[in-house]
Amino acid sequence: MYDTNLKKFYIAGSFRYVSLINELSARLESLVFTRTYDWTKNGKADSFEKLSKIANKEYKGIRDCDFLIFLFSGGKGANVEFGIATALKKKIYLLDLTNEIQDFEKTSTFYYLDNVDDFPKFIEVQEVKVD
Questions:
Q1: Which terminus of the chain is more exposed, N or C, with fewer CB under 10 A?
Q2: CA angle at residue 39 from 33 to 42, to 5 degrees?
């Protein structure tokens, strides 16, 4: 069941889904949720120093969130963010854009941890319609 005290979120995904991520974030923010870090505003890092700064900001965003939304398949960065959230025992909602998570031959055991749930269940609780 969804805990109504969980108000701060972080979205893990790929740059190829930036418009979807920002639309989803705007919908959540309209329901008084708060995004802990907007990594979509980052340009492509061109130095190790910038990578380090971005990594630390993203880590802080995950650490400070109450729940993480994981857009699958998101790429290596999103998978690392999923791992960080798992290690920090954060609530994780999966938004599977490929239908691979329900495919036994393609899924991962980690998507079935107790702290992980399907994103549609979250949508139903919040009565948000995703087109």
A1: C
A2: 145
